[in-house]
């Protein structure tokens, strides 16, 4: 009789978990928390109300609109933000006025509402300033109409800078550099003139590139995003520790900015 061979049963393979079992082991991913609303520093709205009350009392019946612009309109108020108002009137405009309400400095610019609407076609700064304005007082929707026209004008793009304006912008910036060269022995004055030079160069950048002006806080970041090489030179200029280094960076910045713009014609 032949002995029977013992057969070992194969080891059973454990069953793979189902997708439902796998899902059950996963923890729920929490929803991202909602961002807290922007907090307006204490006193801002009170100062704003006081400024509106002042303008309404001063202009009386010829006031047709008050528009808040700047950081207040952009909801970017800080503890040190000023209040910038444009007061639209029917009568003669009084220009600009500075007052203080509480701890806030208030910059009020008065303008005939028809003139402001007409200037939107020509001003490189007015449309981006007004299109996001916050209406604080409006008579017969005059302020609303001005803001709507500013938004429409903004979509059309800034007024182009002609060749004569481009040459003038270049000449003004190079004029400041020449003054700095003459005053190198007076470093404080030279540094001040270099700052004027840089501000004029930034203005020239927007005008020669056909771009709307941005809020001052965003200017350098916007410049670097549109022209990284200019942005790098601007950073070198602003961070330079000596007059020599800042002047060198300023020359390079101007050379790059105005490289395609001729000098004014020479008449002897």
What does this structure look like?
- With 268 residues, the chain is of the alpha+beta class.
- Helix content is 47%, strand content 13%.
- It has helices at residues 19-25, 44-59, 113-119, 126-130, 142-156, 163-182, 187-208, 219-226, 228-239, 243-257; strands spanning 63-69, 83-89, 96-101, 104-112, 134-138.
- It has a five-stranded mixed β-sheet.
- Strand 3 (96-101) and strand 4 (104-112) form a beta hairpin.
- It is globular.
- The N and C termini lie far apart (132 Å).
In short:
Strands 3-4-2-1-5 form a 5-stranded mixed β-sheet. The chain is an alpha+beta fold and 268 residues long.
Task: Please describe the topology of this protein.
Layout: H1 19-25, H2 44-59, E1 63-69, E2 83-89, E3 96-101, E4 104-112, H3 113-119, H4 126-130, E5 134-138, H5 142-156, H6 163-182, H7 187-208, H8 219-226, H9 228-239, H10 243-257
Parallel strand pairs: 2-4
Antiparallel strand pairs: 1-2, 1-5, 3-4
Helix pairs in contact: 6-7, 6-10, 7-10, 8-9, 9-10
